[in-house]
Design a protein that fits this description.
The chain is an alpha+beta fold. Helices cover 34% and strands 19% of the residues. The protein folds into two domains: 82 residues, 2-Layer Sandwich (Phosphorylase Kinase, domain 1), CATH 3.30.200.20; 180 residues, Transferase(Phosphotransferase), domain 1 (Orthogonal Bundle), CATH 1.10.510.10.
Length: 286
């Protein structure tokens, strides 16, 4: 995909066709809203990520890359980008709406209601496989997400899990030898902190953290300071504690995904195959 010939000059969606509703979230670069988009086919419930136009050239290039790449994604476990509008101050990316919010918030709400309540074995397996398939889809396009985490996995009204936020996504092989811009510390592989060459195995490590979240319903490294987590994971082989009630297949998979040597981790294709092959163990019908 040639991003050099892609320019953010003309909007593909008119801002006047966007009706804003409640704010769903916010970050350093902007805000996300639930919207009604007046498309040519009719009104669509959607989400809009309203991003301040970057003054930094490298950040602008990454934003351009994100939109150019993501607008071509077509997979049931990847959030769809419908288009974008440009104003004097913002880029507004219109995308698929996920009514149940992020997996992170969903698990947090379960803990708040009753800390003893966990996802069923069917829910764990289904969402783990859907997360893996979203990552696999990017990998087949020679992309590494670089920020796989439960806040970037959204749940639609029909309980489909979808990977989102491609602001750090890169093609492989990367021309640069090191990571530029890191994801969120709780999900990052040890080699990211050591500035080793970009690899899809970092997404595999992060998938392992997400799988652990699905199993436990907890927040990884809760209560630990960021700098302590970084040092402990990168240089002390620290990983989240695997509960005794964890099924053997997941215990093995977590251990494999969290290997300090990334070459010892499974590929995302191998993970999907493992999850496909264990559906009958949990009584799940394909």
């Amino acid at each position: 995909m040639d991003t050099d010939n892609f320019h953010l000059h003309e909007s593909t969606i008119k801002e006047t066709d966007i009706i804003y509703h409640e704010r769903l979230g916010f970050g350093a670069d902007g805000e996300v809203y639930r919207i009604t988009w007046k498309s040519e086919e009719g009104e669509v419930e959607a989400a809009a990520k309203k991003i301040k136009l970057p003054s930094d050239a490298s950040r602008f290039q990454q934003l351009k890359f994100e939109i150019h790449v993501a607008q071509n994604f077509r997979h049931e476990n990847v959030i769809r980008y419908y288009g974008y509008a440009i104003t004097e101050t913002h880029v507004i990316i219109v995308m698929e709406y996920a009514a149940k919010g992020s997996l992170f918030r969903y698990l947090k709400s379960l803990r708040k209601k009753d800390p003893k309540v966990h996802l069923s074995s069917g829910e764990i397996h289904s969402w783990a496989k859907q997360a893996a398939k979203g990552i696999q889809y990017l990998r087949k396009s020679s992309l590494v997400h670089r920020d796989v985490k439960s806040p970037n996995l959204l749940i639609t009204a029909d309980n489909t899990l979808k990977l989102c936020d491609f602001g750090l996504t890169k093609y492989l092989p990367e021309t640069r030898s090191t990571y530029t811009g890191r994801g969120t510390f709780r999900w990052l592989a040890p080699e990211v902190w050591k500035d080793q060459k970009l690899s899809p195995k970092a997404d595999v490590f992060a998938f392992g953290i997400v799988l652990w979240e699905l199993i436990t319903g907890e927040e990884p490294y809760e209560g630990m300071r960021p700098e302590h987590v970084v040092f402990s994971v990168a240089y002390g082989n620290k990983r989240p504690d695997i509960p005794t009630r964890c099924a053997d297949v997941y215990r093995t998979l977590l251990t494999q995904c969290w290997q300090g040597d990334r070459d010892q981790r499974p590929t995302i294709d191998e993970i999907v195959a493992i999850l496909d092959g264990t559906e009958q163990v949990f009584g799940i019908r394909k």
